[in-house]
Design goal:
With 378 residues, this protein is of the alpha+beta class. The protein has twelve helices and six strands. It has a six-stranded antiparallel beta sheet with strand order 1-2-3-4-5-6. Helix 10 packs antiparallel against helix 11. InterPro entries: LptF, LptG/LptF_permease.
């Protein structure tokens, strides 16, 4: 690399690092607010909250890296043009492709990082996030049970304990269970003890009363059934008492590309999910190349414009508009391919066609007039 290459590469690299980290931190902050209740309402430590939400960062980086690569490339070259640095470099005999070399190197690094994240880091981190989230909501229900607080363990189970001893003994217990539709159950017991079961934590209740509303039938009206017991057991895992139903399903983001393109027949996935997974697999493979395509769009708009003494906002506006349109088209193409896999080639056209068109512009755009620097324009 020449001194000019190193100079431009340093500006592009530092800017890309700062913008990407800053934007990822902003997205992480906004998205992590969804999990703040785990700290405020359920007693998890701040360290656990940061570790849990930090597992989302690879997904954020994979999404925003192509965008920040474009933004940094476009505005760095627009600034160099406004500061007359590109004018001097062109006067020294450097072509547009020669000027674009540092940006293409940065975009190549961004593409390689995107491939690494999409092929390995994103599924690994998202799988760890989902597993930890599942454990918190189900197997850690006993930990989330707080003394003197009505604790909601899922949407259908509420538990209250007046006192909780250090050994796990509970006193003054109330359980409201709505996991069976139409037959809510309320249990009150003098004391109980938390134990581990095959489907998650359970609480063994001693000396209590079980009240259950039985629905009306053709021969009798609805009635309240009251049962006194010496010992009873309640599963605290949210959802149902069945271990099979508490099993966690893996979504597309925690599967590797090979699993998305060739789903395991043993899973008996519906055809709709298979189509969605195949489209997701091709999007994961193609999306890193949008970093290179978007960077070349920024280069084409910045380098194809001439010099204006008082600056020119039009290249930046044109480049931003084109990338916004490309992002919207990417969403539309992804949704179309998920419904109909025959549209999967459009995913690759969307990822690669902008780069080919930008390369045509940088090569001189045969047949199109090229604007010359206007040194006298005031």
């Amino acid at each position: 690399m020449t001194k000019i290459d190193r100079y431009m590469f340093r500006q592009l690299g530092v800017s890309l690092l700062a913008v990407t980290v800053g934007l990822a931190a902003l997205v992480w902050l906004t998205q992590s607010l969804r999990f703040i209740e785990l700290v405020l309402d359920r007693g998890l430590s701040l360290a656990v909250f940061i570790e849990l939400t930090g597992l989302l960062l690879p997904s954020f980086f994979a999404v925003i890296l192509p965008i920040t690569t474009f933004v940094v490339t476009l505005f760095t070259y627009v600034r160099l043009n406004a500061d007359r640095e590109l004018v001097v470099m062109r006067a020294a005999g450097l072509s547009d492709w020669r000027l674009a070399r540092p940006a293409l190197l940065v975009a190549g690094i961004a593409t390689a990082l995107g491939l690494f994240m999409q092929l390995w880091l994103v599924p690994v981190s998202h799988a760890a996030f989902r597993a930890w989230q599942f454990e918190i909501r189900n197997e850690m229900a006993a930990i989330l049970l707080q003394e003197g607080v009505f604790s909601s363990l899922g949407d259908t189970l509420t538990v209250y304990a007046r006192q909780r001893a250090a050994d796990g003994t509970l006193r003054g217990i109330l359980v409201h269970d709505m996991r069976e539709p139409g037959t809510p159950v309320t249990i009150m017991a003098q004391e109980g003890r938390l134990v581990s079961g095959p489907s998650g934590p359970r609480v063994t209740l001693l000396n209590g009363v079980r009240q259950q509303m039985e629905p009306a039938t053709a021969t009798r009206p609805a009635r309240l059934s009251v049962l006194s017991f010496a010992e009873n057991s309640v599963d605290l895992a949210s959802g149902s008492n069945s271990p099979a139903e508490t099993a966690r399903n893996r979504d597309s983001r925690e599967r590797f590309v090979g699993e998305l393109l060739r789903p395991d027949p043993a899973e008996n996935l519906p055809e709709r999910d298979i189509r969605k997974f195949r489209a997701e697999g091709h999007q994961r493979l193609s999306s890193p190349f949008t970093a290179l395509s978007f960077a070349m769009v920024g280069l084409a708009t910045a380098l194809a414009s001439g010099f204006r003494r008082h600056g020119d906002w039009r290249p930046a506006a044109l480049g931003v508009t084109m990338v916004v349109v490309l992002l919207a088209l990417g969403l539309a193409v992804g949704n179309l391919a998920a419904r109909n896999n025959a549209a999967i080639p459009l995913i690759w056209v969307h990822a690669l066609a902008p780069a080919l068109l930008a390369a045509w512009v940088l090569s001189g755009s045969p047949g199109l007039p090229r604007r010359r620097p206007d040194m006298a324009e005031g």
